[in-house]
Structures are given as structure tokens and as C-alpha cells.
Task: structure prediction
Amino acid sequence: MISSPYEIALDERTSRGELWSRIDGQRLVCYACGHRCKISAGRRGICKVRFNVDGELKVPYGYVAALQCDPIEKKPFFHVTPGATALTFGMLGCDYHCGYCQNWNTSQALRDAEAQGGFSLVTSDQLVATALRYRAGVVTSSYNEPLITAEWAVEIFRKAKEHGLRTAFVSNGNATEEVLAYLRPWLDCYKVDLKSMRDKNYRQLGGRLSVVLDTIRRLHQLGIWVELVTLVVPGFNDSDEELKETASFIASVSCDIPWHVTAFHPDYKMTDRSWTEAGQLLKAVEAGKEAGLNYIYAGNLPGAVGQQENTVCPHCATVLVSRRGYQIREDRLTGRGACPKCSMRIPGIWN
Result:
């Protein structure tokens, strides 16, 4: 395995993985993501951060490349303790290579020399202590793809749970049955990017549509709270037909899954397109309503999308959580979980 100095430095921040099995000799299969890479000794998986040393899988451990306290609405989670602070950590690497990635400095660090950012050594105890110090109610794995660093996340989440903290993934959803079973005891909520309903688009990004759809169904079946995000990219996934298909699929799983349709801005390798206009997001909102979805949110254009930043009771239309961007203006749900007017239970995590 020929490695750059950057890769060598990262390779020293690893531990023995748990999501793998041996195939034959020193070949192994990794279960962290939907690629299910078969890795020979001395080789790396597609993500480039999980690799085989003498028949044993090594995985990222003991560092962060990004660490920040954010409103939980930024993830975005709108049905998880509104207004809570989320301590969000990220590592390096991704199993996709999206040309419009907004976190490319971390996600593409092993593929793109211009993206190679720094990282800091840290222990799981230190991260949880930081969350407590800043009164964060949620600890979140994000910025790069958390599935490929699942073992590190689970170590942190185990300790976070001991202190009563919630835990979350912000992910592309390219999961396996094995990794979701591994995460389930320690994970409260999971945001999936549903990037397109066209397999050819997913192939362009490095994945497969069927895997992501299966992940969404499985998360719902497992009882992990799930919210979905579709970044509406002009000329990529914004046709009326595709938006309707996306909404119909979500409704086939559950009409209570929140769907966030968010505005694209030019980034990374996709700078040849304009911002998504508010009208396009509202068109997606209408597709969601026609499909029977109860909670549809338009994001990245604060103040430009009317009531579509708010959580509204689907039974009596009472505004339950009023928002502008990441700011909570009024919250009538936290600690209650039901509409104060008609008593309808609103799905989510409210305490």
C-alpha cells in the first residue's frame, strides 16, 4: 500500500475495526457502508480511511477534523429538542465524491490534495466533557460521512449516553444492515440525504439509489428517529416528476417523516449553476403536500419561504414551532410533544 505522508499520519490514528469479517486468507469484507468493500491485505476501501493490515481491518480513531457547537436545526433536525445545542464532530473521508459537497475539505481530504485539512487528537472522554461544558443536549457525527467512522462514533455515543445526552448521525444513508444494527443501541436520530430518485445520479456521486432507500426504510423499522433532506440542485434533481417521486417514496414509508427541501449554492466542483430559487423549493413543498406528507420544510433561504420553516399541527394548523433560519421564535412543543390546541401527538423527540 503506497501512501502519501498525509495518509501515513492519518493511518497512525486508527484502531482495530469491528464491522468486518474475513473472506479467505487475508482478504476481508467491510460492512461500514453499502459498498461492502472486499479488501486485500495492504489495500484500502473506497473511502480510503478503512484499510487492511495483515488481514485485520484498521479504522479511524482518536481524532477530529472538525468540532463545533451548532443549533440542532442546522443539521437539520426540526423534530428533535428544538433550540438545543449540538456538539458536532467530524473526521476525514467519504464513500461518495459529490461534486457539490459543502464539506469537501473534510469529506474529500483523501482524494483531493486541495482539500487536505488538519486534524486534532482527542479522546472520547474529552469530547463528551466538551459537550457537557457547553451544555449541548446532542452529540452529532457529521461533516464527513459518519458511517465510515462508525466505531469511533459508537465509543463517543456510549459515553454520551451515560450522561443523558442524545446522539445523532448526519449521513448520506449508504448504510448496511450490519452497521445499522451496530449503531442502533447508541443512536437516537439519523438525518439522511436523499439526493435524487435517479440511480444514474447516484452513480455519478459514487453510490446506488436502492441502498439509500433501503436504509430509510430500515431506520424507520428500527425505531431510530429519521429526517430526510433533499438539496434541490438546478438541472440535477429539480424536475417536477422527480420531486413528486421523492415525496411519494417518503409517504410510502411514513407520512410523518420530516422532509427538508433545501437550496443549493455553488460549491466545490459545481460552480456553474445558480442558487436554488425560493419558488423551486415551494414547488417541492407542494409535491410533498400532494403526497400526503405532514411535515415539509424549506431551508437555506430564511425568511423567503413563508410558513415552511415552521412546524405546524397537521390536524388544526396551529403553529407549534416558529423559526427563522436556525432561530427558534416560539416553541410550544418541547417537553409536551403534543399540540396545545387539539392535543394531537407530534412525532419526534421533544424532551
